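I hope you will forgive my troubling you with a question about protein structure. I should value your view on which stretches of the chain appear to form regular backbone elements. Here, with my thanks, is the record as I have it:
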Amino acid sequence: MLEVATTVPPAAASEGLRSAHPEGILANAAWNAFSTLFSIALTFALAPLLIHRLGTEQWGLLLLVWSVAGVLAITNFGVGEATLRFIANYHANGDIAGVNRILGATLTFYAIICSVVMALVYPMPPLLTDWVKVPVGGSYPIGTLFRLAALLFTFGMIGNAFRCVLMAVRRYDISSRVALGQHVARTGGFIVLASVGVGVVGLVIWDVAMAFGVLVLQAVIARRLIPGIRWTPSLSSSGMMEIFGYSVFSFATHGFLMIYREGGKLILGNRAGTVSVAYLGTPDSVANRLHAVVISGIETLMPVFSANRDPAETKRLLIIGTWAATAAGVVLYLPLSVLMEDFLRLWISPAFASESATAGCLIAMSLIAPSAFAPIATLYRGIGKPGFVTAVMAGVAFAVLSTTLVLAASHGAVGVGVGYLVSSVAWLGGLAVGWLRLFGRGSEPQLLRTVGLPLSLAAVLGAAEFWIRASLDGFGWIALIATGTAFACTNAAVLIGVDRALGGDCPSSQAVQRLLQSQRVAGILSRFSLAGWRTRTQERD
């Protein structure tokens, strides 16, 4: 049945626009970063408790369920990004009928995909039980867990359609508050259930219930932000053509990203068992949540690249963004890799750290390269050339999978960590190719200064920091935090100092200058300056 376009009176459309009250870019970025950091803190508190209550085997099963739900997200086919783009466009033009056409088509597509996934997963428990390698003598409801993973995926996918509405009207503050509430309720439920002896199945059921509750809440909020928005699927041929015309490369990129992120865990679960998944997934979760904070800031460059028509300005922004992202990777991930064993020892247990630390160290180091690649990936997406990003992601996924297939059975979690580190070659190779395609030959010196120099310094700094840590005795939380802070500050000082010492048009100086030009940052700094204090005093008088 084809959708009949519904005409919304202009008054309703303008009311929808007024009710949205879009937030600024900095405010949205701050909310995203805060939500991500809060999630990291909850993961930090939750993981050791669940490992101790459930045992390593059941904790590994829980991580495997989340990985399955993540892999199933490939079936989004990039429609989420397309939905966000088109709803933002139609909402900005006051076209509520266009918003409903896109949202209705998205909900229809999601309903079809979720129905197919449920129909395929529910009859498959015997095959899935044989596929997962569980400890000898253990009895685990693998089939039930995979069915619940499909249900978790279904509620999350449909809820994502309404979440796109919140982001399209630039209310990241609301979407972040919803996410914060979900994190708190979900974590609190996990703690209570695990404390009273509920197993992994009960925890996953609670996770499914939370996903359904968030779906309903996001639908209600979307309706409040844009009165007249539709709640149900509708078959719109024009809407389908719009979202699929945009989502082809987005889907392929997302698919390769999921293979890169989750494929190693799935192979590890098959080749080495769920215990190895726990040893890999625990440090991987923490490192990648920290990585998400860096990436969330870089993603704000996309609308800037999309709107900018000055090639010189685009190049300046790319140089600043690439240097800043690479430097952030060195400053954050290098100390994390050096102190990973101490972190896991204090956070979980010495026994767990001895099995998991090497894989965690490799994962943390491997995140420097994707941080460096992120700005140029954002630029290519912003100028309408996402196929380049897709090609690089294919190479990255292949590097991880091929290495994992060779090493997982013999080296366990460390083999997957090696695969992530090997993928750095694909990330940096993609950055070099993309840079030369944009700026041509003759731009190599700038690329070497922007990326090559920080990476070379990282090798020297990493060797020194590993040597320093090896010469120190074991220490507690305070010493760990102090040492990590000292390493991070030293890394930042060396990167900035060497860059400035080379003179010329140094990226570090450009980055600081751009930051100080921000009106919000200038306003914050003025509050702490003597002139600002005098002005406020005079105003009060």
The chain has two domains: 12-235, 248-517. Confidence is low (pLDDT under 50) at residues 1-19. Residues 12-235 form one domain. The two ends are 70 Å apart (CA to CA).
